[in-house]
User: Fold this.
Amino acid sequence: PDGRLDLTPNTVIITKITIEKYGWIPGNIYQELREGVAIYPVEFFCPKNSDIKITRNSQNVYTIHHFAGSWVPKKQKIKNRLLRILRFVVGDKLYEKLRLLKRKLINREKNKNTACTAKRIER
Assistant:
């Protein structure tokens, strides 16, 4: 509505619709849903890890998503690459802890700013 390009990945939209309309319970298992919709485990259509670009071998592979990200702006691609390198260097466990810490700090700052705005409005 504001004229900006919506860069929401289609997977976010499809996940929401599949849960709400078809009753999908997220999980990496085969599921038959309402109206003949079938959900397959990730190895069938997306065996390639998007972070480290390694393809899992499986007899179930039907097609491979290569994550070219042609729609992603160059600045975001650089950020994503740096994050993948960081994840590789520090490992998955520490990377996730750092990501959660960052999220907590951002939320704390947002809450602080919201409280300050509310105080100004009250005055």
